[in-house]
Amino acid sequence: MGDAIVVRDLLVDRGGRRVLDGISCTVPRGAVTGLLGPSGSGKTTFMRAVVGVQVVTGGTVTVLGQPAGSPALRHQVGYLTQAPSVYADLTVRENARYFAALHGRGRAEADQAISDVGLAGAAGQLVGTLSGGQRSRASLACALVGEPELVILDEPTVGQDPVLRADLWARFHAMAAAGTTLLVSSHVMDEAARCDRLLLIREGRLIADDSPAAIRAAAGVDDLDEAFLRLIRAGEPGPAGPAEATRSRTGGMS
To answer: GO MF terms on file (predicted)?
Structure first.
């Protein structure tokens, strides 16, 4: 089967600044991989490169065996951006059914996607009348309705209450158990423990790539917040460079 995503020496420059600096990593199939890091660390740029909509300076990104952005991937990759990507003048149901039709799916699949994100009670509402968190979930339903092999989710739980966050993560893991690969970004470190594997980015560099348990063990602490702080401090630029030094300590694949 191989890995769902293979990134090698990825470089991205934007506005005269290096946004991603030589990132190499893999994302295994059928698992939830978390992309963690502070705001502005390069998470969204990394996801855009995986989807194939980001101009890259160097390196390669392979997705499901194809170069990122290949036409063959259009119906295999679902992408949820931070900004709502649905039509405000249509209802939640109309949006979901429209995107379902684009993927050759029917009304039943659209209605199921709405239910899966907890919006069944708001299916008849215009998206423009929804709260920010509800709009995000409407976008999520549209990203999932095509049953893609790979789902890229950029901050999917921002603005959601704790109960709904838990429900969404349960849904993500159910999808992974059924064979879907998920790459989920967050700047909220308490969501890291919900992932099967973690990629930690800071200032455009990969400083950790391993399971939550292995990262805690490498840092010598039980708390992931503290583990990340220690890895960040240990990964300050030095002779070996931050990414290389930390990947060596955690034993992560890159």
So the answer is: ATP binding; ATP hydrolysis activity
